[in-house]
Amino acid sequence: MSQTVDTDVMIGAEPLSLEVVVAVARHHHPVGLAEQALSEVDRSAAVIAGLAADERPHYGVSTGFGALATVRIPPERRVQLQESLVRSHAASSGDPIEDEVVRATLLLRLQTLATGRTGVRRQTVQAYADLLNSGLTPVVGEYGSLGCSGDLAPLAHCALALMGEGEVRAPDGEILPAAAALALAGLTPISLVEKEGLALINGTDGMLGQLALAIHDLNQLVDHADLAAALSVQALGGLDGVFADDLQQLRPHPGQAESAANIRRALADSPLIEANRRDGAIRVQDAYSLRCAPQVHGAVRDTIAHARLVAERELRSAVDNPVVTIDGRVESNGNFHGAPLGYVLDFLAIAVADLASISERRTDRLLDPARSRGLSPFLADDPGVDSGHMIAQYTQAAIVSELKRLATPASVDSIPTSAMQEDHVSMGWSAARKLRRALDGLRRVVAIEILSAARAIDLRALPASAVSQAVIDQLRTRVPAPGPDRYLAPEIADAVAMVGSGVLLAAARDAAPSAA
């Protein structure tokens, strides 16, 4: 969950947290630059200036790039070299990616520049901070990055905008030529010197930014999935004993324990559960989609924890090639390779698909009169005349099928580029893009389960637990109580929006402050 950041984010004072990345990228929190970071920037910029005067060739300073690294560039053409690099690499295609992704990319490149390991000048670093604070967002097409050598095309579009070229989106959503937009914002285009063009485009920032946003969103969605499971257990007259803490501790996965605790809190003192205990035909055990919810949801949580570990390591990194070392050497390296990020982005997509799958199975059980313990077929008001939530489950099924396709790893693929100089690439950007689509699908699947479970509970004679009832009451502020068939798509859209905004979780927490 994102935290509130009350002061300017000081870049270079310490590594950014995932929460701060979300705050700046999504909520436009302003950034500043720590003076100690700028001092280190000055020191490494002086190293590059010294190499620029050297007679020996230095990659990124006085040579071409990639497969053209053997071409020596004379001093009078090196500004053109750097700016030509940015222009040629700003070669994305497709629909523009989301502003929050571009802002995250800008922020993370700024953080690396501020480490003083890239050799750029102070004014170039400041230009990135100024662009973020202006609210202008470079327009970047969806396709173009292979996740190695970093996110070249997306980062090139960002650098191009700072040069006063390409297009940007204004805070009001209008797309403007970058030069005009910078002028309106009182910003001056930058001119690049030796190594700066290369330093601005050679990083994993796009992949990492999308990973940070995904971790935040999936944390919220797995909380919603716990809540949805608790609603479905009550709606189906399920058993709550399987969620007991001592049973969970027999298999001590931390995510499993957390999800089970969330479900227990959401079920506490439920009249529906108590009525089921008094039922003379109590079942020995429930179906897997109910009984095993902590195990599946918990595995998702543990996958998120692993992804967070990788992301936090990357946030402590300075990714560039070549890099200016702490002792002043300029060295080529392979730290731009996106494999660590690509793997966990793909891993999260697998978890997302399975979390959606178990949610859809619980919804299907709610709608089937053979398994729903007395609920009307498809939760219809007048079955036959009304179809209830029949097609809402179809929508879930269609999304889950799509999520299974999106769970196919992107990072197992590699297509050589740059005349075989870059002969193994990560495809981590593709992994990030499909994960964002998968998270959108999961949000819709979980919202439909909550919508259906709330309707099922309303059709029962007894209320749900205090926590669950608070969630249902909050849902009813936008989605009416059960009745004859209505235009269903707007109700689904409202439920999806409420999951996205977090208001349902907030209602649960207000009813039980210790709830997840």
UniProtKB/TrEMBL annotation:
Keywords noted in UniProt: Histidine metabolism, Lyase
EC code: 4.3.1.3
EC primary class: lyase
Keyword Iron assigned: no
CDD domains found in the cross-reference section: PAL-HAL
Entry annotated with the keyword Translocase: no
GO biological process, one term: L-histidine catabolic process to glutamate and formamide
GO MF, one annotated term: histidine ammonia-lyase activity
Pathway recorded for this protein: Amino-acid degradation; L-histidine degradation into L-glutamate; N-formimidoyl-L-glutamate from L-histidine: step 1/3
Subcellular location: Cytoplasm
GO CC annotation: cytoplasm
Family: Belongs to the PAL/histidase family.
The name this protein goes by in its record: Histidine ammonia-lyase
Organism encoding this protein: Propionicimonas paludicola
